[in-house]
Amino acid sequence: ERLSDARRNGHEVLAVVRGSAINQDGASNGLTAPNGPSQQRVIRQALASARLSAADVDAVEAHGTGTTLGDPIEAQALLATYGQGRPEGRPLWLGAIKSNIGHTQAAAGVAGVIKMVMAMREGVLPEILHLDEPSREVDWSTGEVRPLTEATAWPETGRPRRAGISSFGLSGTNAHTIVEQAPELEEAVAPEAAGPEAAVVPWLVSGKSREALRAQADRLAAHLSARSGLGALDVGYSLASRSVFEHRAVVVGEDRDALLRGLESVAGRGIASGVVQGRAVPGGKTAFLFSGQGAQRLGMGRELYEAFPVFARALDEVCAYLDVLLDRPLKDVMFAAEGSSDAGLLDQTAFTQPALFAIEVALFRLLSAWGVAPDVLIGHSVGEIAAAHVAGVFSLEDACTLIAARGRLMQALPEGGAMVAIQASEEEVAASFAGREHEMGIAAVNGPSAVVIAGHTQAVREVADTWKAKGTKTRRLRVSHAFHSCLMDSMLDAFGQVVREVSFEPPTMALVSNVTGGLVTEAEACSPDYWVRHVREAVRFADGVRALKALGVTRFLEVGPDGVLTAIAQDSLAESAEDASATMLAPVLRKERPEAGALMTALAELHAHGATVNWEPIFAGRGANKVELPTYAFQRERFWPETSIAGGGRDSGSTAADSVDARFWEAVEREDLEALADALDVDGDATLGAVLPALS
């Protein structure tokens, strides 16, 4: 990565590659023998690439295999290049990591790079192990090159530290790279920070087991507690770039102390807020649930609008289409001050439906920008139009036309009618108003025991009172009209005319229907009659949730201003005896909670349960930098058998036979012929023929 790009992206710079070169001259001296002139040429080419002289390099990490053939040839090449023209008292220091770890074959070159980068950071050049004196096969007097017979402080020269690294391959391929000490951060152009300084930050931790997860959190908490200078944003950015394992935790918070408490909670020490834990489920799918009427709230989306430009642009785009179709600018209604004249408009269905559509589309765009993508979509009533739009059924302009007409035509109906939620099954509720279907009907089946009836006020009240008298829980909904009932019939023709004027496309994503409770077919999605039925018929949300589960959905994310569908979907999922811990339900937003925090918690839930989240854009433009943090907390386990060496892999004290075996193998180890003969009960001078029966 270019240095300027690395700085701008907040990546930690370990060193700078100043120059490199590669050549090949295997034919000149055989496939397995090194060639000195070729090595000299590759070094000079690397210096030219770096625009440096030999005296500008302080040390070289040699290929240094330790052979009597290769080492003298390499040393002479270094003496002829780096050893010439150096200031007095500034020799080239020569090291070789193969004295520490042996020859790592294809990784030999990168091992040398790692060693020299670490040496630059520490300011110490490590010694060559097992070197008593420089090789006598080399005339060291021909240049200023000194093998590192002891650890040596890196020379202070008033310029960046530099080192060359050589790696020579079988068949005569030679490579030489020159690396330079990374510039101080303040010397580079710092990235511009965008957005509020005090913002929600996620800290991601994972492990291959529960124990590893706890150990990783514990190690990280101890490291950060001892280093108060490490900022929460930099820590979050650094953690988000790491590999992710099956067992996951995310700590969400605005300040360092709260995040540290969360880490300690993950480590098993106490309880803290803002902690999400889960396990990635292989093959699990993600469903987006788009909220319906009733989820709206004053000010919904305002905090996200101020904090996230992607959300703001998306909401502005939707409102640009809707504002020409509504009596008031939609954002003025959504963001109206409490108690103002505009505030009351949000609960009028002519504004409620467009407002829900607008915020749901903007939320979808924001999630998409962060790499969060659904496998399946479902909406509740009006939410299905938002789902259909993001699935590609309607263009944004046509969807806005549809949603504005739907709300306007419903608003124009005479007020009246009632909707009541009853805690009973669909069959039981339907039986309770048999013969009165012309007065009321089932408006929604939200769960196995969550049914909504709607229709004429008197008829609905009578049925509800009957249920209440039996001790069944009922609740009258605060609505202006009896939606999904016979009281909608008078607006269906007008709505049908609007629907027939828009264009349809087959859905590009799986979409579950409110009308049927199953997957929407291409014919249904592109049929005006389907969308008219959608206004009138019952919302079969419970069937839709069961369909999602049958499709393999394990992650349910509610895309809307509150957690309404999250709660009712739980009842349908609870019908199954399967492990509920493998299922995730979370809303993107919750009323009476800071929107950025709720959104980040939802992302944390998705991540913890195996969904893909691209965290990079979440930190982009906030001035985050990579910092050094503890490495993975490996759960080390010993597999060596705990047995006596003398026992030859057996427990020497278990039986008398084992005791004889132990004495036999001890005698073999000591090469004690007399004891061996005694153990076998044979004459020490016996022939092989006499010994073999004793051995058997």
From TrEMBL:
Molecular function in Gene Ontology: fatty acid synthase activity
Record key words, sorted: Acyltransferase, Multifunctional enzyme, Phosphopantetheine, Phosphoprotein, Transferase
A Gene Ontology BP annotation from the UniProt entry: fatty acid biosynthetic process
Chain ranges of the Ketosynthase family 3 (KS3) domain: 1-181
One Pfam entry name: PKS_DE
Cross-referenced InterPro entries: Ac_transferase_dom_sf (IPR001227), Acyl_transferase_dom (IPR014043), Acyl_Trfase/lysoPLipase (IPR016035), Ketoacyl_synth_C (IPR014031), Malonyl_transacylase_ACP-bd (IPR016036), PKS_assoc (IPR032821), PKS_Beta-ketoAc_synthase_dom (IPR020841), PKS_DE (IPR041618)
Keyword Chaperone part of the UniProt annotation: no
Protein name, entry field: Polyketide synthase
Top-level taxonomy: Bacteria, Bacillati, Actinomycetota, Actinomycetes, Kitasatosporales
